[in-house]
Predict the structure.
Amino acid sequence: MPDIDPSPLLRRIADALERLAPPARRIADLAAADAFVWHADDDWLEPVIEVSRVDIGLLKGIERQRDILLENTRRFAKGLPTNNALLWGARGMGKSSLVKAVHARVEEEMPGLLGLVEIHREDIQSLPRLLGILREGKRRFIIFCDDLSFDGHDASYKSLKAVLEGGIEGRPANVVFYATSNRRHLMPRDMIENERSTAINPAEAVEEKVSMSDRFGLWLGFHPCGQDVFFDIVEGYAAAYDLPIPSAELRARANEWSVTRGARSGRVAWQFIQDLAGELGKPLD
């Protein structure tokens, strides 16, 4: 009986086992960039080389909120006691832009000390795993969740609440949590009412929901802007990008744009500037 070479069979078995084995966990390089996006599926921090953001000097009408968040973030970068922050209120008024702009300013003042990690709303339950990775690093990090809210029977708010304050380990000293939301209390009224109706003690059920927002020591409210502030925002953008248009015409066209949109906000102002710059043939670099 001729000898049979077992090598091809062994290679096939090895390849099959390789396919069945889980992929090796990626090692997070926390110095790879100043900003990252958290991917919960494979526990990966994706470096973001160029962050989409607005210069802090162009954020008009929110000077008080800017100064408070900037001071809070500077303290954090220096290792001083710091509060988690909830930026809540009107759409398009610069909540997420402010978080990114403040990070950029502090990183410019204290290079290499502060990183920014964006976590998506649907990945909140993976927050403890993310904290486990960041806890190991020497750098300080802002974890940022945009448009945070909870609906229906969503129980992930309990994970966030425990991480912010109530867990055994608590929030790592090198991490702070910033979130934006259109809701001050993060929970819709019908969700609170449902908890009240099914609870043994209705008052305690409401307290459970409201206490979610209480975990944020810093609340910053954002409100719809008036016409004067809207014009300030538009003129700031026009000057920053050197758009050749007389002030009176700029205001008239910006006002017409806001009327067609039925709103005045920083977002509406930026959309107008994009349209105007395209018409004038000016890139927004």
